[in-house]
Design a protein that fits this description.
Trna Endonuclease, Chain: A, domain 1, seven-stranded mixed beta sheet, 16 helices
Length: 431
C-alpha cells in the first residue's frame, strides 16, 4: 500500500538551519515548496484541514515551536505534493530526509528519491545511507516465523488439511444463498427425500438448480404396491429403464415398471462434507483471505486441542486471529466458550462470523471482556451478505494499524511530534 524511503546524510558538521534551508530550496526545484502559504491548499485537500486550521496544524506537526535554537535538536519540517510526503529533519551531524507515498504513486516517489540521492549545494554529504521499505500487506510467507513460534508454544493444537479447489469454493459460494442452504440442510437431515415432496414445499426452482450443478444427486426408488416395502434404489433413469421389465418383485411378482416409482434426491459426498458443521464457511472465508493476499501457509483450518475445536486460525503480521463460524444466531452460550478459547490459546483477537445475528447479550459480554482485558476488540460479522466486505475490512484495518506503527517508528528519528494528519491521509488507501 505504501512505501517509505529514508536517506540519511552523514555531514562533516552538525545539522544547521542553513543546511535545512538548502534542502528546502533544492526541493522547490521539483515542485516541493515548504512554505505554509504554498502548501495550505494541499493540506486542505490531503489532510482535510480548512484554511484557518492549516497554520495551527503546521505548527503542531513541527512540535508547536519555531526552529529550535539548539542546532543539535532542530525541529523538522515537511511538505506534500502529488501524494508524496517529504519530512526533513535529523539530529547531530545527520540529516534525514523521509519520503512516504502510496505504492500506486511509485513513479513520483522514485523521481523525488533519485533527485535526493545526488549531492546538493550546502549539505556537503560524505555518503548518503539509503533505507527503503515497501510496507507489506503482512500476509505473506515472511511472517511464518510468528506462526511457527505460536505452534511451538501450543503443541496441543492439531490442524486439519483443507484443499482449496475451485469446485469446493464454487459450491461453497452457492451455499451462501439462503434458499440453497435451507434446501441442502433439509435433505441432509432426512438423507433421502422424495423429489415431489420438495416440489410441494415450494423448492422446485432451487431444486432444479442444485441438481443441475451436481450438488444434489437424483435416484429412482422402487416400492412394492402391495406392502410399500423398498425393493431397490437405482442410480439413474437410464439404469432403471434397462431393468424395469427384467426385474420383478419377490412379494407380488410385478415387474419393476408396474410398482411405485419415485424420484428421490440426496446430497453428493462433496456437498455433504460442506454442509456438515457448516464447513462451507471455511472455504468462503479462506478464499476471501487468499484474495486479499494472505499466504495459504499462514492459515490453519480447524485447530483442535484438549477436545475443543476452533474453525480457523490466521497468523497475520504479528497477530494471531481466531475465527468462529455459525450458520445460525450466535448467543451468549457461544460467547463464553469462544472467549475461553481466545484466552487459553493466547489469541490476539477473534472474529465471529454468523449467517444470522449476534445476540445483544453476547455483544455486551464480548465488549466488556475486551475492555477489561485491554485486548483488541472481537470483530463481529453478521449476515452472509456481509462476509466478504467484513473480512476485507478486517484485513485492511490490520494493514493500516501495522503500517502506521512502521511509519511512526521510521519518523521517530526525524523529530516529528505526532502523525495524526499522516494517519488520516494513509487511511484513505486502506478502505
Amino acid at each position: 500500500m505504501f512505501s517509505i524511503q529514508q536517506i540519511t546524510y552523514n555531514l562533516k558538521s552538525n545539522l544547521s538551519h542553513d543546511i535545512l534551508d538548502a534542502v528546502q530550496e533544492y526541493l522547490v526545484g521539483i515542485g516541493y515548496d515548504f512554505s505554509l502559504r504554498k502548501i495550505s491548499k494541499t493540506l486542505n485537500e490531503t489532510f482535510g484541514l480548512d484554511a484557518k486550521d492549516c497554520i495551527k496544524y503546521h505548527q503542531y506537526f513541527r512540535n508547536e515551536s519555531p526552529w529550535d535554537s539548539d542546532d543539535n535538536n532542530l525541529t523538522p519540517d515537511f511538505t506534500i505534493n502529488n501524494n508524496v510526503l517529504i519530512v526533513v529533519g535529523g539530529i547531530g551531524n545527520c540529516l534525514i530526509v523521509t519520503l512516504i507515498y502510496p505504492s500506486s504513486n511509485k513513479s513520483e516517489g522514485d523521481k523525488v528519491f533519485q533527485f535526493m540521492k545526488s549531492e546538493f549545494v550546502g549539505c556537503d554529504p560524505i555518503s548518503p545511507l539509503i533505507d527503503s521499505l515497501n510496507i507489506p500487506t503482512f500476509g505473506d510467507s515472511t511472517y511464518l516465523e510468528k506462526l511457527d513460534e505460536y505452534c511451538t508454544k501450543h503443541p496441543e493444537l492439531k490442524f486439519k488439511d483443507l484443499v482449496i479447489d475451485d469446485a469446493s469454493v464454487k459450491s461453497s459460494r452457492e451455499i451462501m444463498e439462503s434458499a440453497v442452504r435451507k434446501l441442502l440442510i433439509e435433505v441432509s437431515m432426512n438423507k433421502k427425500v422424495k423429489y415431489e415432496d420438495l416440489v410441494k414445499s415450494g423448492s422446485e426452482e432451487t431444486l432444479i438448480k442444485c441438481t443441475e450443478n451436481g450438488m444434489l444427486k437424483t435416484e429412482i426408488m422402487v416400492q412394492c404396491k402391495s406392502n410399500s416395502s423398498n425393493l431397490a434404489i437405482i442410480n439413474s433413469q437410464n439404469e432403471f429403464d434397462g431393468v424395469k421389465t427384467a426385474l420383478r418383485c419377490a412379494h407380488c411378482n410385478r415387474e419393476y415398471k408396474d410398482e411405485i416409482i419415485s424420484k428421490i434426491v440426496s446430497l453428493n459426498s462433496d456437498t455433504k462434507a460442506l454442509i456438515t458443521k457448516s464447513h462451507w464457511m471455511n472455504y468462503v472465508v479462506v478464499d476471501e483471505l487468499l484474495k486479499l493476499g494472505v499466504s495459504r501457509d499462514l492459515i490453519k483450518v480447524s485447530p483442535e486441542g484438549n477436545g475443543e475445536e476452533l474453525d480457523l486460525l490466521v497468523a497475520y503480521g504479528d497477530k494471531i486471529i481466531f475465527f468462529e463460524f455459525k450458520d445460525r444466531d450466535f448467543g451468549l452460550g457461544d460467547a463464553y466458550p469462544f472467549h475461553f478459547r481466545l484466552r487459553r490459546y493466547s489469541a490476539d483477537t477473534g472474529v465471529i462470523i454468523t449467517t444470522s445475528k449476534i445476540a445483544d447479550d453476547a455483544k455486551k459480554y464480548l465488549s466488556e471482556i475486551s475492555e477489561s482485558e485491554n485486548s483488541m476488540k472481537v470483530r463481529e460479522i453478521e449476515g452472509v451478505e456481509n462476509i466478504s466486505k467484513g473480512v476485507k475490512r478486517l484485513i485492511l484495518e490490520l494493514n493500516y494499524k501495522m503500517a502506521i506503527g512502521i511509519v511512526g517508528d521510521r519518523l521517530s528519528n526525524t523529530g516529528i511530534a505526532e502523525i495524526a494528519g499522516i494517519k488520516k491521509w494513509m487511511a484513505k488507501y486502506y478502505r
